[in-house]
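Task 17 of the worksheet. Students: predict the tertiary structure of the chain below and write it out as structure tokens. Keep your answer in the requested format; marks are given for formatting as well as content.
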Amino acid sequence: MFKKISAIVIPTLIAAGIIIYMLLSVWDELLIALQHVVPLYIVPAVLVCLLAWILRGARYMGILKSLQVKAGMLVSTACIFVSQTANLVIPARLGDLVRIFILKHEYDTSVSTGISSLVVERLFDIIMVALLGVLMLPFVLNVPQWFYMVIVAPLAIGAIFMVVLIAIGRVKSENKYIMLILNMLEEVRKASLSIRSLLQFSVLSIIIWLLDVAVCIFVVYMFGQSIGVPVIILAIVIGNLVKAVPLTPGGVGTYELAVALVLQLSGVEPALAFLIAVTDHLIKNLVTLIGGVISIYYLGDWVLSTIKSAFNKELGEGVNGNSGR
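Model answer:
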């Protein structure tokens, strides 16, 4: 019981600690900055955020189709909404695994197929956002060395994983557990390495991330700031790559800190940089939360009990090969 409680409480306290520290360090400047807010920019920011979600649903529908799962656009989008909403409160990004149970309930898919769909989505997300970062680095001055590590590391890992996928067809084993892993990797290979998949998922991923950047641009305008687009793109890249490390639920705290640090490279005062980062993440998280609630009602009340049982007692069984229900 103590381990379960600490697994949620400790990451939450880390997130709260980061946010409180950032708030207190720039409190006076923050109050001044809030007086210059133009709420009108929130509307287009929310609309752009919703469009990004629609494209995420379309991409996930394509991924499922490549895995021989004929899911509709609404269910595909709902899967992502629910899992990302769960990630806002569940540490270590375990909310992603909710999709396994939704797909099992709706289409009787295997755990392996559910995990494969997650791997493909994350593969394109991480590689494409890191690629955007590489393209922006020459246009941003005084970039700290650790930025390069944050951007290059996922690209290197992604490249190694691609090589593994290409070579996986030649590996054989009689061990059933190794065979499960090999079968899952084979599914990922078929879903991600065809020319059509590479083009479709890469283009959609780039557009999704650019829309994510556009939300931040509207927030920047809302606070009357003039920040170069390359800096904003780099801020979103670093923020999301740092957020990918599951230190806090939903990356709260770590995302804001990373984004604010990058924005300050363009001369933005720490208070404004922090306020922009917090508002940007708040808009995205609120859209996620509202979309998640609507998606739960759309899919049915069973989703709530499934999420609860999945993370209380059945998650371990599901990962080992059972259905998780």
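Marker's comment: Residues 313-325 have pLDDT under 50 and may be disordered. The radius of gyration is 20 Å.
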